[in-house]
Specification:
Chain A: It is a peripheral membrane protein. Chain A: It is found in: Cell inner membrane. Chain A: This is Peptide/nickel transport system ATP-binding protein. The complex is a heterotrimer. Chain A is an alpha/beta fold. Chain A has 20 helices and 20 strands. In chain A, strands 6-7-8-3-9-10 form a six-stranded mixed beta sheet, sandwiched between helices. In chain A, strands 16-17-18-13-19-20 form a six-stranded mixed beta sheet, sandwiched between helices. A four-stranded antiparallel beta sheet of chain A has the order 2-1-4-5, with helices on one face. Chain A is globular. Chain B is mainly α. The radius of gyration of chain B is 24 Å and the shape is globular. A two-stranded antiparallel ribbon of chain B has the order 1-2. The relative contact order of chain B is 0.14. Helices cover 76% and strands 2% of the residues of chain B. Chain B starts with a helix and ends in a 5-residue tail after the last helix. Chain C has one domain: MetI-like fold (Orthogonal Bundle). The two termini of chain C are 25 Å apart. The interface between B and C is large, with 50 and 45 residues.
Chain lengths: 564, 324, 301
């Protein structure tokens, strides 16, 4: 049905044309779900945009054939191309929160789309809209349709989005990361829906995603891309189960398995400057750190911590109900162990990190650090020893380093702030050595953050945390913004550092597979409450709470027999 | 929603009180009101009696309360210069300024919004570049120079339009309007245009910026991907969303219109409040200055409350609470 | 060289925009002329002895009766137009830059504090800003000027005119800076590098000025340029209204006000040449401001 051959997309820039996609071919039959995987910058979204004719300015198709049935997509003029969009090809975007016009009722958006492509009475259009919404699993569609987008939850909104993409019966739908912004349970429902639509309505899907688990679960065929080029293509089970190309193998190695704990990820040595951490380099930093943590590793414990935020006021007369972000949280982190905190968005896991670091004041409960009380939030003075002992690695590598400071300045900050090293030359030497320890080139010291990739920045962030000589390291979703291969490297690094320095680590993530690889014990959070806590392997093997069971069963994984 | 409006009301009252306080402080502390009101020949005893009579020896808070109370009753005191009641002086000037301001604002909206939409939709076109350059020059020419240029060309060189005063006006009750005579309209054109140009450029640039932002949003990209007709996409989807932020700024712009009307009125000898204010500054006529401030702040507050209501009307997110 | 330019987006765009380059040249030329006015001007317009009524009302050199000594003609007092304009631009720029600087410090300081601490600090500062917004720039400036007239004794008024003008203009412009700084600070506060600094126990002043400030300089720089243009316009407007600077120390605005008297007579140059200079100066600054905005906010391109 869709045939893409030798597609090349270029973006003119001041450095000359940049080739985003090169010599890409794929074909899709009706009812087929074709997965397009690759890490960031692989050009997978660009392929989708080129097919539907919505390339970002000033990008253009330099070469190749795009055939939808008998229609040559490249031969269409602007108006024909626009008429074809929606009618024969449609698209689903990543974030349902922003994909719908907030000022228009759902009904209006559906009806206008149907009427744009078909000359039918508006009552018929409305009727079709209702049927379609019900088919998508929205109950009482006739009245729900009168609502505005903000009145729907995220998962419901994505259903509305799919209904919109589907309301004109297109042959092909391009779904660009359709479930990335959704929680596991909703993701699984949406994926089921897509599978069903492909089977029953014979709609062809191009499923663009970075999540190999998702592809494994529903795609019939898959294309692996890297740097704009096709790496490997074929039936899903064959490509992912028995990869031929070295890159695909690498990619599969880097995917953390949910069903078992592996000691280390297999990572090709040459990647990402890892070679720099050869013998001899980073020794001084290592010695310096060991000198600092020679004292006992320190544990952490929380007793009945509750955090409330004032609710948004909507009435003159009633005081708003406070929003309870954390509700009666108690757990102990054993000295020198890794505690995994798992939860979906809104579970309060980031609030927990901020409470521990003193950014948020708990409304009740207590914390202790190595046996001595740890004051919370505003009551923790700037000079409290925990400021140094607890350090954090943040989620977003693009905002966690001050983009106006050189790496050297960023790294040296904790050293002088806590009076650890007073001589500036010594500080510089130590920072350089620490960079080597985390696998970075020493010349990074005089560069600015924007000169590094996300993975490299996360390494720098780890170095900054270590330079405070902490005993507790809090990692809040440290790899969720990274590609899998980079994630694997960073997880390896964190494991090594934790083992070498006996750090007590709090590892926070929404990704169960990642947590399983890292944690000794875990706590499962949901809506601010603890659902389950215990030794990690035990919880993963024999979960007790219903919520944990559900999470584990709905997370997309690769079939067991594929694993290498 | 009720809470949103109530909050805005409270804020407005606060702004009014603060401005009233400013006006009161002006009156009380800039020069001595008694020396201003009486002549040189008034005896010290008489002055003291007057001071007592006017309550100027009372506590500060009491005086301010009395001042605010009088204001609410419409008693604005007397001008130092003309000895007339200030309320009357201002009231006769309000129609001229308001009519000028409204026409200027309409010009700015009716030209600025379409121009903003056009330049946002065709960001690389030649016309867009020309319009952008023109608006850049527009914001850079001081209002008074625009006035002078218009007077020079249309008044002096071509002799088409009158260059000062309001021309023919008609009294409707207490309201003196220029809208009902050809002469009045002719006199209004140049000042309104002068005042409108600057606001126009601001409106246009704002609409352009917001529109470009909206055109980049996911929901517009999604609507494009669904093949929603272009016209509908631009006007029903994009423009409506553009108006949400634009409306708030237009409310703020009203303040600019009033302020620049001072300049315009001065250039065209337009008998409005601005001209009165300028005169009162020259003669340090504090009561008039104070009342002018309060009146301007009042207009500003009212316009912004209307804007808030519009905002609620356009944006369902403010009207209807989340269900989820 | 080319590679260097290509690497810096701002520079690269600059070399590709003829209008912007022209504006930069004009602005720099006028600013240099103003700075070196005492050395390059033919006469000192403040010094009655340096010019003569005999040279009065001479047209520019290309008109009939033009005099080569006075390239752009003279006014009714016999002052060389070029000299008056250079001195006028000097005064306008001094007032504009001083007012803009004061407004920047005041506004950015308050905006940073409001954005950093939030809560009550923020509420108080923003309510003050609300009131300031209800009284637009010209009004504020006029008002402060009026108050100064009421409070200061007449002999001091003359000496303090420039100071009063600077204060009046600065106080009417600070809100822009405060609002921009506050909004940008709010954005930065949610960034993890700020959270990291706060968490580490760094001093609030250090977080504000060493961490946040450098990251919000972009939008502030745009406002500084735009507000410099506003300040110059505001000064010209006040002087034009006869409330700014008196005729014996003319700024560009005062020159235009004086020129107005010749609007209907034939001596067009006395009005239009200073006007052209003022507009050229402000347009250039605004073109540069617009360019900076494009560089810092590529989404508008």
């Amino acid at each position: 049905m869709l045939r893409v051959e030798h597609l090349t997309v270029k973006f003119p820039s001041r450095f000359g044309d940049v080739t985003a996609v090169e010599d890409m071919s794929l074909s899709i039959a009706p009812g087929e779900i074709h997965g397009l995987v690759g890490e960031s910058g692989a050009g997978k979204s660009t392929v989708g945009a080129a097919i539907i004719g919505l390339l970002q300015q000033p990008g253009y198709i330099a070469n190749g054939d795009l055939m939808l049935g008998d229609t040559d997509l490249r031969a269409l003029d602007r108006f024909e191309a626009h008429a074809l969009r929606g009618k024969r090809i449609s698209m689903i975007f990543q974030d349902p929160q922003t994909s719908l016009n907030p000022l228009m009722k759902i009904e209006d958006q559906l009806v206008e789309t149907i009427l744009a492509h078909e000359d039918i009475p508006s009552n018929d259009a409305k009727k079709r809209a209702i049927d379609l919404l019900e088919e998508m699993g929205i109950e009482d569609a006739a009245s729900r349709m009168q609502a505005y987008p903000h009145q729907f939850s995220g998962g419901m909104r994505q259903r509305v989005v799919i209904a919109l993409a589907l309301c004109t019966n297109p042959e092909l739908i391009i779904a660009d990361e359709p479930t990335t912004a959704l929680d596991v349970a909703v993701q699984s429902q949406v994926l089921d829906l897509i599978r069903r639509l492909a089977d029953i309505r014979k709609v062809g899907f191009i499923l663009i995603t970075h999540d190999i688990g998702v592809i494994a679960q529903i795609a019939d065929t898959v294309t692996v891309m890297r740097y704009g080029k096709l790496i490997e293509s074929g039936a899903t089970a064959q490509v992912l189960g028995h990869p031929k190309h070295a890159y695909t193998k690498q990619l599969m190695d880097a995917v953390p398995p949910l069903d078992r704990k592996i000691t280390r990820f297999r990572v090709p040595e040459e990647d990402d400057g890892l070679a720099a951490s050869g013998p001899g380099k980073g020794d001084a930093a290592e010695a310096w750190l060991l000198e600092g943590v020679r004292q006992q590793a320190v544990g952490l414990s929380l007793q009945n911590i509750t955090v409330e935020f004032p609710g948004t006021r909507t009435s003159i007369w009633h005081k708003p109900k406070p929003f309870v972000a954390l509700d009666d949280i108690s757990f102990d982190v054993q000295p020198g162990s890794v505690m995994g905190i798992v939860g979906e968005s809104g579970s309060g896991k980031s609030t927990l990190a901020k409470t521990l670091t003193g950014l948020i004041t708990p409304s009740s409960g207590g914390m202790t650090l190595g046996g001595s009380p740890l004051p919370g939030g505003k009551t923790r003075s700037r000079h409290h020893p925990s400021r140094q002992l607890i350090q954090m690695v943040f989620q977003d590598p693009f905002s966690s380093l001050n983009s106006r400071h050189r790496i050297g300045t960023i790294l040296a900050e904790p050293l002088w702030l806590y009076g650890l090293v007073n001589d500036s030359d010594e500080r510089r030497d130590l920072c350089i050595d620490m960079l080597s320890l985390v696998g970075m080139d020493p010349d990074a010291i005089d560069k600015y953050p924007h000169q590094f990739s996300g993975g490299q920045r996360q390494r720098i962030a780890v170095a900054r945390a270590l330079l405070a000589r902490p005993t507790i390291l809090i990692c809040d979703e440290p790899t969720s913004a990274l590609d899998v291969s980079i994630q694997a490297q960073l997880l390896n690094l964190l494991k090594d550092l934790q083992a070498a320095f006996g750090l007590t680590v709090l590892f926070i993530s929404h990704n169960l597979s990642v947590v399983r690889q890292m944690a000794d014990d875990i706590v499962v959070l949901r809506n601010g409450r603890i659902q389950e806590k215990g030794a990690s392997e035990q919880v993963f093997e024999t979960p007790e709470a219903d919520y944990t069971k559900k999470l584990l069963s709905l997370t997309p994984v690769m079939p067991h027999d594929w694993s290498l | 929603m009720a809470y949103f409006i109530a909050k805005r009301l409270v804020q407005s009252v606060f702004v009014m009180l603060a401005v009233a306080f400013l006006a009161f402080s002006l009156f009380r502390f800039v020069g001595d009101p008694i020396t201003q009101m009486t002549g040189v020949e008034t005896s010290v005893a008489d002055q003291e009696r007057l001071r007592e009579e006017l309550g100027l020896n009372d506590s500060f808070a009491l005086q301010f309360a009395r001042f605010t109370g009088d204001m609410l009753k419409g008693d604005f005191g007397f001008s130092y210069r003309t000895r007339q009641p200030v309320a009357e002086m201002i009231a006769t000037r309000i129609p001229a300024t308001l009519e000028l301001g409204v026409v200027a604002l309409l010009i700015s909206l009716f030209v600025g919004i379409p121009a903003g939409v056009y330049t946002a939709l065709r960001p690389r076109g030649f016309a867009t570049q020309a319009i952008l350059m023109a608006t850049l020059v527009g914001v850079s020419i001081p209002t008074f120079v625009i006035g002078i240029m218009l007077i020079f060309f249309f008044g002096v060189q071509l002799g088409w339009l009158p260059t000062f005063g309001r021309g023919g006006t008609v009294k409707l009750g207490g309201w003196e309007t220029s809208f009902l005579t050809v002469d009045g309209w002719r006199a209004l054109i140049l000042p309104a245009f002068t005042l409108g140009v600057y606001q126009l450029t601001l409106t246009m640039r704002l609409v352009r910026a917001e529109m470009m932002e909206v055109m980049r949003s996911d929901y517009i990209r999604f609507a494009t991907a669904r093949g929603v007709p272009m016209r509908r996409l631009y006007f029903r989807h994009a423009l409506a969303n553009t108006m949400v932020p634009v409306i708030t700024i237009i409310g703020l712009q009203f303040g600019g219109v009033i302020a620049f009307s001072i300049v315009t009125e001065s250039v065209f000898q337009w008998p409005g409040m601005g001209l009165l204010f300028l005169e009162s500054i020259r003669f340090v006529d504090i009561p008039v200055m104070g009342v002018y401030l309060v009146v301007i702040a009042f207009f500003f507050v009212v316009v912004n409350l209307i804007v808030d209501l519009l905002y609620v009307a356009i944006d369902p997110r403010l009207r209807i609470r989340d269900v989820s | 060289m080319l590679a260097f330019i290509k690497r810096h987006e701002g520079l690269w765009l600059f070399t590709r925009s003829p209008f912007v380059m022209l504006a930069a040249i004009v602005a720099v030329a006028i600013i240099l002329g103003a700075v070196f006015a005492p050395w390059i001007a033919l006469v000192n317009p403040y010094d009655l002895a340096s010019f003569s009524l005999m040279d009065g009302l001479l047209p520019p050199v290309w008109e009939e009766f033009g005099n080569e000594k006075f390239l752009l003609g003279t006014d009714d007092q016999g002052r060389d137009m070029i000299s008056s304009i250079l001195y006028g631009a000097r005064l306008s720029l001094i007032i504009g830059i001083s007012a803009m600087t004061i407004a920047t410090f005041l506004g950015v300081g308050l905006g940073l504090v409001a954005g950093y601490f939030g809560g009550r600090f923020d509420a108080v500062i923003m309510r003050i800003a609300d009131i300031q917004l209800a009284l637009p720039a010209i009004l504020t400036a006029l008002l402060i000027d009026g108050i100064a007239r009421g409070i200061l004794p007449p002999d001091m008024q003359q000496n303090l005119r420039v100071t009063v003008l600077i204060v009046a203009i600065a106080l009417s412009l600070w809100v822009n800076f405060a609002r921009t700084a506050r909004a940008s600070t709010f954005v930065q506060m949610n960034k993890e590098y700020v959270q990291a600094a706060v968490m580490q126990g760094q001093h609030p002043l250090r977080v504000m000025f060493v961490h946040i400030l450098p990251n919000i300089l972009g939008p502030l720089l745009v406002i500084m340029t735009v507000d410099l243009a506003s300040a110059i316009l505001l000064e010209a407007t006040l002087s034009f209204l006869g409330i700014g600077l008196p005729a014996d120390s003319p700024s560009l605005g005062t020159l235009i006000r004086i020129g107005m008297q010749f609007l209907l007579s034939g001596e067009w140059w006395i009005l239009w040449i200073p006007t052209l200079f003022l507009v050229a100066l402000v347009v250039s600054i605004n073109v540069l401001g617009d360019f900076l905005r494009d560089v810092f906010n590529p989404r508008l391109r």
